[in-house]
Amino acid sequence: MAGATLPPLRDLRAELAALAPRRAVLVLLVSRHDCQFCAEVRRNYLAPLQREESPRLVLRELESDTVTDLADAAGQRRPTADILKQLGVRFFPTVLFLGAGGRTLAEPLVGLDQAGFYGAYLEGRLQQAQATALTSPKDAQ
């Protein structure tokens, strides 16, 4: 992860549980260590969000080819590949927008747009995810 870094995801359940009281959004970059597009998304789009330190956004990265297993939403240690399959991740980079309990709050952002609209797509997803998190009943989170 040359350049900017995001905190690594190691325990999905713990991260999701911490979201509910704040109605925050877990913005999860699923990447590969050798993916230049993943590095670009991390460096140019997500690292600046991390520096803003918004209390309603929690940014994490799961480097799918270097983390062999982690705790899933239920707290069970499972192979990373199984968790990615459950989350519907098939391409890199993929940015997920999750709420407490693992609920998807906005459509995943897959790949990197080379036409220059990625920032707008990301901002739209972030707004949708935050609005959904705020309007969802706490027990549905």
Topology of this protein?
Elements: H1 12-17, E1 25-31, H2 36-52, E2 57-63, E3 69-71, E4 77-79, H3 80-87, E5 94-98, E6 104-110, H4 118-135
Parallel strand pairs: 1-2
Antiparallel strand pairs: 1-5, 3-4, 5-6
Short description:
With 141 residues, the chain is α+β, with helices and mostly antiparallel strands. Helices cover 35% and strands 23% of the residues. The chain starts with 11 loop residues before the first helix and ends in a 6-residue tail after the last helix.
Tell me about this structure.
This protein has helices at residues 12-17, 36-52, 80-87, 118-135; strands at 25-31, 57-63, 69-71, 77-79, 94-98, 104-110. The strands form 2 sheets. It has a 4-stranded mixed beta sheet, covered by helices on one side. The chain is built from 4 helices and 6 strands; from the N terminus they run αβαβββαββα. The longest helix has 18 residues, at 118-135. It is globular, with a radius of gyration of 14 Å. By secondary structure, it is an alpha+beta fold.
In sequence order, what are the helices and strands, one letter per element? Answer: HEHEEEHEEH
State Rg.
14 Å
Tell the overall outline: globular
The DSSP helix count reads 4
Order of strands across the main sheet: 2-1-5-6
Strand content: 15-25%
Largest sheet: 4 strands, mixed
Secondary structural class: alpha+beta
Extract low-pLDDT stretches: none
Determine the mean pLDDT. Answer: 91
What is the first-to-last residue Cα distance? 32 Å
Percent of residues in helices: 25-40%
Number of DSSP-assigned strands? 6
